[in-house]
Amino acid sequence: MTARDSSSHMDCGPHATLLFSDLDGCLLNKSDYDYRPALPALERAVAMGIPVILASSKTAAEMVPIAAELQIPVAPLICENGGIILWRGNGPERREVTGVSRTDILSVLDGLKSEYPFRSFRDLQLEGIMAATSLPADKAALAADRHSTEPLLWDGSPEQLDSFGRALSAAGLSFTRGGRFYHVAGTATKGGALQKVVAAAANADAVKVIAVGDSPIDQSMLDRADYAVCIPAPDGTMNVHAAADRERAASQPGAAGWAEAIHGVLDERHQASIET
Ligand SMILES: [Mg+2]
Predict the structure, then answer these.
(1) Separation of 274 CA from ligand 1 center, angstroms?
(2) How far is the CA of 214 from the centre of ligand 1 (A)?
(3) Of 185, 214, 249, which closes a domain?
(4) Residues with beta carbon < 5 A to ion ligand 1?
(5) How many domains does the chain have?
(6) What is the pTM of this model?
(7) Position 246 in a domain
(8) What is the pLDDT of residues 17-33, one digit of tens each?
(9) CATH number of the domain encompassing residue 268
(10) Mind listing the pLDDT tens digit for each residue in 198-208?
(11) What pLDDT was estimated at residue 3?
């Protein structure tokens, strides 16, 4: 990657703050994907000039329309769990593969194909992805537009699965279980991508980071945040954590919890800007 010149640095507004947020279970409710309860707090952050950077397991193709629907000013997107950063909002749009490229993942899978029974997104093709995910064709196509991760369906035994996981790990890849799918990726994290986005900000050393997450995959972002907003699962379980001085736990799940906690943090940032 070429160095980013200073003219392309992201403006973090008068509050010198960046807000990173996971989507599902945070800004969007888990069950009904409703985000309306979050909107007043989101609009307040935008009005304060705070860039809002979405960070999700979703692809860039899936995230661009979601960011537009939420009316978030154009900013970088952290996609595929940190494997991809879609740089935008300052200068031409550019996709950075921070993790292992999908091409390299597929060539490792090619080498394992004769030994292990699995069907990855590439094998399934659009029809198979639609059948396995219940997504309509247009949504399935956005989910299939991957650049740093490859989901797969496992057709073998649990013993073979262990050995398959070890083979992937030996190739430098991670292998995690999602819902129905297993996910093959590099070792990129959301937190690593967050760090790259912060480094690209104007006055990066002075920037305060707010991060919002609800699941262990978000922990790496929360670990790097000055304000770690922890959102509980719908059943009330808290699956993320932070040191007491940084943790801002929401009392409710989903978008309502997002709004409650973000209003509290924005009050703090406003107060800090008065005092300095
Ligand atoms: Mg989530």
Answers:
(1) 33
(2) 5
(3) 185
(4) 22, 24-25, 214-215
(5) 2
(6) 0.93
(7) yes
(8) 999 999 999 999 998 99
(9) 3.40.50.1000
(10) 999 988 999 99
(11) 44
The pLDDT assigned to 276 comes to: 73
Select the more confidently predicted residue: 253 or 11.
253
Domain boundary among 128, 157, 185: 185
Q: How many residues does the chain have?
A: 276
